[in-house]
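Closing statement on the adenosine-5-diphosphoribose sub-project.
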Amino acid sequence: MSQQVRAVVARSKGAPVSLETIIVPDPGPGEAVVRIEACGVCHTDLHYREGGISDDFPFLLGHEAAGVVEAVGDGVTDVAPGDFVILNWRAVCGNCRACLRGRPWYCFNTHNAKQKMTLTDGTELSPALGIGAFAEKTLVAAGQCTKVDRRASAAAAGLLGCGVMAGIGAALNTGAVGRGDTVAVIGCGGVGAAAVLGSNLAGAGRIIAVDIDDQKLETARRLGATHSVNSRESDAVEAIRELTGGFGADVVIEAVGRPETYRQAFYARDLAGTVVLVGVPTPEMKLELPLLDVFGRGGALKSSWYGDCLPSRDFPMLIDLHLQGRLPLDAFVTETIQLDEVEKAFERMHQGDVLRSVVVL
Ligand code: APR
Ligand code: ZN
Ligand code: ZN
């Protein structure tokens, strides 16, 4: 048995996405079918459409999603039909070297569904990040479903599935921001704004938001930034140093993914401070730094994949904080849209006035 649902598909490189009917198989062993309630539009979806991630067209886009488990296959015990879940792209395997040494957030053998979803002519789809959630329903590995409190709104909860988790985790997990620390966040889009929020949650003493767009700085202030710097108008490194007693920040989070902003992060931190790179560079980008500065300034240069999150640990905890009013996830939902408006949301991304457009089904 299988069922037909509507979904957003990128058929070929650079072409606008289209709304298609797809076939979702019944869940096999270890799999689950999830009825999607909301899915955020992320830059990675656009990168897939532009052919920047792989050539495995057609792609079933969408990966920042929450919904309700409709059916599970044999052997699935962690989730059951009716559970409200956030979908994750780190379904830890439990057997790889990272998992076995107790660091499952580095798991490099994460699970996806084994069966393929297809177009009606049988063409196999490649789901974005193994999820594919711009769809009424999707098929995933059961481990990709993390159960959370049903009282959270799906639009807000789904965002923890990718970008917002990446930002919060860059601060909490990778950067290990502590009480009283000074933090600077360079780039305050969805990911950077979430890093501001994470730093706030961790009790940072000063949170300096840096962006080239005043609107983004405004939002960052609403989410807990104590200071903001427009780096088009003033030098980011000097400004951060000035705001931290001349020292530089304890933790600088780079949420743009460019050599020039990484360089700013590198020089804007205090001696023995930490740089966290959570922005994703492109393959041709190169960075040159005096090796003596790398040595002489000490500290840690870290990268944060998916905020070094462990979905089973972090999603329910963050949703609970959200429901207690301590984590305003709703602030990231700039607009809610329909399934057939994803292409429009891609266009709006370039205008810079959106943290997240979220498809609500
Ligand atoms: N200096 C400071 N800020 C910058 C600069 C710059 N030179 N260039 C761009 N920005 C700002 C933009 O104004 C924007 O607010 O960086 C922000 C980027 O935000 P978004 O485009 O909304 O992207 P986001 O979803 O936050 O992702 C940021 O993290 O996960 C990765 O692939 C993602 O590389 C991307 C990064
Ligand atoms: Zn593993
Ligand atoms: Zn994403």
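The mean pLDDT is 96. With this model delivered, the sub-project is considered complete and its resources will be redirected to Aim 3.
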